[in-house]
Amino acid sequence: MEITFEGGKVVTAHTREHNIRTDQPLSNGGTNSSPSPFDLYLASIGTCSGIYVKSFCDNRNIPADGIRIIQTVEWNRETRLPSTIKLDIRLPAGFPEKYRASLIHAAGLCLVKKSIADPPGFEISTSMQEDRVSAT
Hints:
Blueprint lengths: L1 E6 L2 E6 L2 E5 L14 H23 L8 E9 L4 E10 L9 H8 L3 H7 L19
Antiparallel strand pairs: 1-2, 2-3, 4-5
Helix pairs in contact: 1-2
């Protein structure tokens, strides 16, 4: 993954064939043209759990069309970090009762959630880019 700076507060991640653009809200000096990095972080938790919920349903031929996941965050005012992230899986009428607990378990298998529960170490360094001069 390569991270580039596009001007202003816009920072873009280039991963495989995708570009993920971020910006800051107006209140933080950005133009609010894209989600903030922290918004994408929070969205990755909900969407990752969503993939597991969808796969659970697909494997049992249960339609997932009416399912919604409502994600809310409680914040620690001192650290300004999330203290609790809640995922409420809203099920449509007729969802098989016998699968409710298993669906919660499936949502909890999300790798993004697991990486928060068992965080990786970080190594940050600098290096100089080589000047590339083309021969003419």
